[in-house]
Amino acid sequence: MRVEADCIPCYLKQGISTLKVAGKSDLEISEMINSVLGVIPQMSLEATPCYNSTVILRKIYDIIGKIDPYKKAKEDWNNYALKQYKELIRIVEDSPNRLHKAFKVSVAGNIIDMGITPDFDVDLAMGEITGKEFDLDHFNQLEAMLDKAKNVLILGDNSGEIVFDMVLAQEFKKIGLNVIYSVKGGPVLNDCTLEDAEQIGLTSVCEVVTTGNDLLGVVFERSSEEFLNVFNKADIIISKGQANFESLEGNEMAGSNIFFVLRAKCPLVAKCLGVNFGDIVLKRNRS
Questions:
Q1: Which of 25, 71, 247, 283 has its CA at a distance of 20 to 30 angstroms from the CA of residue 237?
Q2: CATH number (domain holding residue 273)
Q3: Is 263 contained in some domain?
Q4: What's the pLDDT tens digit per position in 68-95?
Q5: How far apart are CA 243 and CA 245, in angstroms?
């Protein structure tokens, strides 16, 4: 997915959200946002939206001098999600198709997003686990690949959401698959890191690797050798969230064994997916 003019307000929105989380006043936010506006004309139109977002965020992180302004918020959302964990497991266990229901649990967690939609409604997403089907669902294509699959890689997205993904990881393991979960190599927005994986106990469920960088989405040329090896050996890749979709959709290096699991929180992403704004999706990569 490539940049469009409508992406620019989202860059700034994520920057403003970060400054609010960092405790900056309205005046400080205005001054700091003004100081990063000069970066926008220098951005590549050939880049992905998530990469350009990272450029803005890095500038803001440099200004505020904080390594991780979302640290406390991430811990809080992980703890919130852990309180829902037993109920999420029960929902999956009561389903006639446990793996498909685990995907519904996983996509419900994708609503937790402090960058694009800081006013997200978790109760709405929890209700959708049992009350709504995927608006675009390629689960049958994924299911057809399971017999020959051995390794599954889940590309993590946000803190809190990582607990919902843990339910999916456990279901994959129950059908005999080796599961690896990837997290960011450093803090960016509320994306999950190794610290989040350790906090929720995911490291005792499956292997966890980092991308080797702190960039939104997947950037192959900036990823660690360990991550690239895991990525290339995976028989099935589950890509969570918009940033991973933006960077991998239609990417020849990504391949056709990737399935995107996300809520379309942006009209441009929804258009690219061929769905409506707000729809939930389990979609195979078109490449």
A1: 71
A2: 3.40.50.10880
A3: yes
A4: 999 999 999 999 999 999 999 999 999 9
A5: 5
